[in-house]
Amino acid sequence: MIQYRTFRNPDPPRILELWNHCPLGRSGARPQSTDVFEVFNYSQLFFDPAGLILACDGPQIVGLCHAGFCCTDDESRLDYSRGVICLTLVHPDYNRQGIGRELVRRAEAYLAERGAVEIFAGPSPHRDPFYFGLYGGTRPSGFLESDPLAHSFFLGVGYIEHERHGVYQRNLAVARDPINLRIAAIRRQTELTIVDKPYHPTWWWYTHFGRWDSAGIDLLRFRLVRKQDGEPLAGVTVIGLDQYIPVWQKRAIGLVDLFVVESLRGQGYGQTLLVEVLRRLRQELIDLAEVHAPDANQLATRVIQAAGFERVDTGAVYRKP
Question: CATH code at 296?
Answer without folding.
Answer: 3.40.630.30
